[in-house]
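Can anyone check this?
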Amino acid sequence: MDVVVIGAGVVGVSVASALARRGAAVTLVERDVPGTGTSSTSYAWVNANGKEPRAYHDLNLAGLRAHHELAAGGVDWFHGNGHVEFAMDDNHRRDLRARVERLTGRGYPVEQITPDRARALLPGVNIPDDCDTIAHFTQEAHCYPLPYLAHQLRLAREAGARVRTRTGVTGLRATATGCAVTLDDGSVLTADTVVSCTGRWSAELGALAGVDVPVLGFGEPGDVTVGYLAETDPVPVELSRLVTSPWLNVRPAGGGRLQLQALDLDATADPGVPPDPAVGAELLTRARALIRDLDAAVINRVLVGQRAMPADGRTIAGRHPDAPWLYVVATHSGVTLAPFLGPAVAGEVLGGEEELFAAFRPERFAGAAEITPPRTPRKPGQQ
């Protein structure tokens, strides 16, 4: 089978790699350089925590498990050391306790812990003495997307996939035997199936095929598609797992650096405007309050991350009902799902069926009178 995969982010390279290793003739097309889109601006928290409804939780859990399986022999991009979240106000306490109860009932690996246990897991983090609601999500993880992507890209090439970078797609159409992809250099690729893994550009690519793929674009500062991420310089802090606090989310960023996120600051995030230096200053102030020994730390960069966000917030996976030769993958949970989506999508393209995709088919949008948009991310416990 001849397959063209469009988009070389973490999802696209995973799909191309899995298809090529199963014997498909794969061409991976990327209009820029692999990993320069959404994959390079992700907090990269691997989890199924708070992912609702249940079908979305189960899909993300499959992604979390796939990461652990792939990393079992030791890899440099995956750190499955867990995630600690602590709550200080009543709303956050209720939210966290309810989540722990719900996830425990599903068999999800989580435990409630004491402040002393939290301090043992998080040396250098200031856990308040009066904090009585702390959860340790023991198998959650953070990922370094670009080393993961490089690994999958190497596997794809070793299995015979052709990779065409800095090559845009200008046309998609059905043919008598499958489909054709017109590239910006005027050449045409023929295939049995095209797999769209273009993330936040999915609607744009769908339009080339004359079909609707409801994925949100940036609309206004602070909307659901954007959020700030900041990175420090190397700091003398021992931190091996994610931390979610009332004021700041933080995780290791490699090389002794920390990645910082505070969802309440995202109201001014705009990908077309350089971040206000005050955002970085506030993130650093919060980091110094949360973590000891950051007096000399500086913020190396603040960027506006852009999310791939289907119109209802849920993953899209399946052949488009109006163009069955076009298989569409789009998800906000790309880093979590990538190692599962690769083989699962490949299996479907080659004729199988993945039961975990049942609730996520593109046809759910057909004839929908109204699509409920996803809520802008908020701090845990915010109403």
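Reply from J.R.: I decoded it. The chain has a mean pLDDT of 95.
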